[in-house]
Design brief:
- The protein is an alpha/beta fold.
- It folds into 2 domains: about 100 residues, TIM Barrel, CATH 3.20.20; about 180 residues, Lyase, Ornithine Decarboxylase, Chain A, domain 1 (Beta Barrel).
- The chain is built from 5 helices and 12 strands.
- Strands 7-6-10-4-5-8-9 form a 7-stranded mixed sheet. Strands 1-2-3 form a 3-stranded parallel sheet, with no helix packed on it.
- Strand 4 and strand 5 form a beta hairpin.
- Helix 2 packs parallel to helix 3.
- The longest helix is centred in the N-terminal third of the chain and has 19 residues.
- It is elongated and about 65 Å long.
- The structure holds pyridoxal-5'-phosphate.
- Pyridoxal-5'-phosphate (PLP) binds next to helix 4.
Length: about 300
């Protein structure tokens, strides 16, 4: 812990600490930061690197690694980030301006951008009251981001069990979700656009939950049991809203404009996945959809 000193002495203490760390790390000392997850502003990296560079100069040490952390975004409905090449440009510019030596390595630690599209959650409708759907999953389960940052994840409706399970389509209407815990925070406002005849016993597939989905689950109030099914990868399908906004369109790479505001009241136009029924590790037949990660080329 750093002592409580006035700024000049504190800087001296930090410098001594960094020098000691440098001696101890034998050529592998670095700086790292995280600009914040789902960062929609590529220049945030350059700004953070400028700050890190100033800290390096103030400390009077050389670093061997600059680690720009995670934060790279995925494409959720209503949130279409700038092109990934803008992020790379910003990082390259930031690195060129940093006070580092020639051998300094540039690292990054993408999380969400790599895995968000890799997983869907299937949750059961336990109760319907008008536009409120009560589910067996919620903010203490896989739906942390849907509750706490109110993201309207893409959804699909399935009906039936086993071989009889099938996707249900039809006129859509906005719904909100509630989880199973009776806690006031167990509320996911959406809106989630689903067929208007959705009913108890139906399954909702919530897509784009490969990042901060299952990793955020708790065992609060004894809830949180889930079965995991690995279904492999099929080419050419994505939950991403098409760049054109036209129904039925397919996302071609990454759209470059933020065309949909968070407050809009139209259904996100999800691209149709390939769906099938598979047997989970617990022996239950579960309807699943197959998606491919298409969003990001790093
Ligand atoms: C140290 C560190 N690096 C990288 C990441 C990945 O961040 P993101 O998913 O925003 O890319 C995290 C996320 O918690 C983190 O804690």
């Amino acid at each position: 812990m750093l002592p409580n000193l006035p700024p000049p002495d504190l800087h001296q203490a930090i410098r001594a600490l960094l020098l000691a760390a440098r001696a101890a790390t034998q050529g592998k000392m670095g700086v790292s930061f995280h600009v914040g997850s789902q960062c929609m502003r590529p220049t945030a990296y350059q700004a953070a690197m400028a700050q890190a560079s100033r800290a390096i100069v103030r400390a009077g040490v050389m670093v061997d690694i600059v680690d720009v952390g995670g934060g790279f975004p995925s494409v959720y409905p209503g949130m279409v980030p700038p092109d990934m090449s803008d992020y790379v440009d910003s990082i390259q510019r930031g690195f060129a301006d940093m006070m580092v030596h020639e051998e300094t390595e540039l690292w990054c630690e993408p999380g969400r951008a790599l895995v968000a599209e890799a997983q869907s959650i299937l949750t059961k409708v336990e109760l319907r009251k008008n536009d409120a759907l009560y589910l067996n999953d919620g903010s203490y389960g896989n739906l942390f981001d849907a509750a706490h940052v109110k993201w309207p994840f893409p959804v699909k409706l399935y009906r039936g069990e086993g071989e009889g399970a099938h996707e249900v389509e039809g006129p859509l209407k906005p719904f909100r979700f509630y989880g199973p815990t009776c806690d006031s925070m167990d509320h996911m406002p959406g809106p989630f656009w689903l067929p208007e005849d959705i009913r108890e016993g139906d399954y909702i597939e919530i897509g784009m939950l490969g990042a901060y989905g299952v990793a955020m689950t708790t065992r609060f109030n004894g809830y949180g049991d889930a079965e995991t099914v690995v279904v492999g990868v099929r080419a050419g399908r994505s939950h991403h809203p098409p760049a054109t906004g036209k129904p039925g369109g397919r996302t071609q790479g990454r759209p470059s404009v933020a065309s949909q505001g968070p407050g809009r009241q139209e259904p996100p136009q999800a691209v149709k996945p390939t769906h099938c029924s598979v047997t989970s590790a617990a022996g239950r037949s579960v309807p699943v959809a197959l998606y491919q990660w298409t969003g990001v080329t790093l």
